Please model this.
Amino acid sequence: MALDVTLETKTSASNVKIGIITLSGDLDASTAPTFKTEVEKAANEGAKRLVLKLSGLNYMASAGLRVLIFSKQKMGTDVDIYVVAPQEGVLDTLEKTGFIQGVILLEKDEPEKYEQ
Amino acid sequence: MDYGRIDIHPTHTYGDFKLRRGRPSPFGATLVPGGVNFSIFSSYAKSCILVLFQKHAKEPMAEIPFPDEFRIGNVFSMIVFDLDYENIEYGYRMDGPFNPKEGHWFDSSKILMDPYAKLIGGRDVWGETPDWSDIYHHRARIALDDFDWGDDRPLEIPPEDLVIYEMHVRSFTKHPSSQVKHPGTFAGIKDKIPYIKELGVNAIELMPVYEFDEFENSRPNPVRPGETLLNYWGYSTVGFFAPKAGYAATGKLGMQVDELKTLVKELHKNGMEVILDVVFNHTAEGNEYGPYISFRGIDNKTYYMLTPDGYYYNFSGCGNTLNCNNPIVRNIVLDCLRYWASEYHIDGFRFDLASILGRDPRGFPLPNPPLLETLAFDPILAKCKLIAEAWDAGGLYQVGSFPAFGRWAEWNGKYRDTARKFLKGDASAGEMAPRLTGSPDLYAWEGRGPATSINFITAHDGFTLMDMVSYNYKHNEANGENNNDGSNDNDSWNCGWEGPTDDPGINALRKRQVKNAVAMLMVSTGVPMILMGDEVGRTQYGNNNTYCHDNELNWQDWTLLEKNADLFRFFKNCIAFRHAHPVLRSKYHFSNRDYMGSGYADITWHGTQAWNADWSGRALAFMLCGKHAKAGTVEDNYVYVAMNMHWEALWFGIPGLPDGMKWHVFANTGAPTPDDIWEPGFEPMLENQSGLLLGSRSVLILVGK
Model:
């Protein structure tokens, strides 16, 4: 299954720029570059928070994880990354590979947590 | 693609592939701007072809010969541009002489794995039967080094402060009772960190985690129809740089590197070091009947020790012997260890059959082995623990004489043997005394400290501790080798009945012997090592060589934690006691003198009478002076240990303490649970400060404060 990626940027109540990326489909080696492009766009637009909405993401391969790592590196250590509503398989991968330690996990979409 | 820089511009083409002269160093496949640098060494190959596969594809997608001008010296190197490096697998074909008598085994029909492969596919999921028709079984892949370590680094715990826990990755959590999400994996161990932490060990030693083939020599289990015997322990390396994919829950996704690194990071966060059991004495290619995997077809004569007739020397007992003191092979060992220390933050290495690493290319022991010296003085490995299994299968036994260069520690086989004999009443107090004090007879004369001695009573090789007190003989029938395999010299004692019994007296004695063993181990100077599961009485049902069993013979049964809760509590408190008392963890051997003016020597020896040791008997006691802890740099309590390995209770007179101090009972294995041990710091005062009756086959530990 292909990957759908959309980027939306907004400004939080406390005047912080947020990049919200919604992913659905499969994130693998063939689709990872699309995701990466959107991360770069968000970074270039000065986002200080990155929200990844993953509820529609069915599968994440190594290449997808690499982009998540890349996004952490690209955006800088002061940027908070929110991982929102990952499916169990994706969450599992994030946990086993340690990536989950570097992000804020939201089990469901709670905009009040990242839009304040 | 815009390559941007002129120095990485392609200069050659082959079909659709853009190429450039590669960089010979480093060996392996390395990402460079725009491409991948492939570099491989062979002394005798005439030509070399890079073989590329799409991941999992049966047939290669391309075969690119190295142009002659791309070879420098004996190294073929080439950059291939625009590769989808996450989705390829690669190998080599090498052409050269085939003349086994001369040591050459070149065969260009074979696809060979890069000995420097950092990621290996082909055995992605543990136990999944391989496709035997595959033309390339162990597939080199390219690993990325983008793991986010945060502020993690190796812990550098002083060696004398370590308590090592030897474990098998799969065995630890594979049993259904482990209740972890991914049984038998690195992720499973991570889930059990709270357990290991509660036990109190601060280093885990993992049996081999380098990629190996569990299907090497696989065969039907003669005892359990339908089950297959596997190369379960993994002491047969396929690739020295790659973690075992089948040990990772994410192996199917090719993410075993991340999963293992996550485990290391998490263990470090919890104060635990990671030591890897590494096997450089031989490889999975076996003898002349074994498969071509890599070395045999790349440079057989360089990598293996060969007889004058071209046969494989077998000092490893496994068919071949890596030619460790060939300069080329020395380098691959060094590169490998440096890689694991720097890329995986590994804290130390235990070298399987390390004496082989000290043999010259013809097999003779070297007085000053360059490999061992190189490792001892390497700047990247400078803080890593280096632990030798100081013997090999060729009969070279070097416990106490391993070429240490001031750095190497040893599995102290003499500690194991003497402690076992003493426990069952077969060794005298005089034989046991040096083992309790870091084996100065073996190491002090050469200026080697007590931490040289890795003290252990059980290890993966041999009986578990519970089996050691439950069996007189090995029971290896399930291995299908007519009980001929495994050690016959176990110094074990079944306490009166061979195997399981309902006799409460025998069971009580067995438990007491287990407690005696760990109590002695934890008060011994040196570095204690315990075997996974001994803390809950794990059994292998008398099998002392379970190398081939992927079943309950190896798997840790977590229900034992409840069944033998008293053992776990005893282990836990003994380990905590060791951590609490620096007097037990000296960096230097005892001097038998009072250099602190305390009125007591750092160590004093006693028998059933205070100040009067009987070196020929079965009873022994010693006292450590707290003023001399860590060579007098810190102050600790006094510790007195009495060991009665006689079959009768004995009265022990106890030495007096400085004014104002009293003896308190930390442990007495002769007392019923829960009075057999106390939490450090909460020890009750001893009623009669001048002595006590210590039960038969019992150990007493007092703390004076």
User: Anything to note?
Assistant: Chain B has a mean pLDDT of 96. DSSP finds 15 helices and 32 strands in chain B.
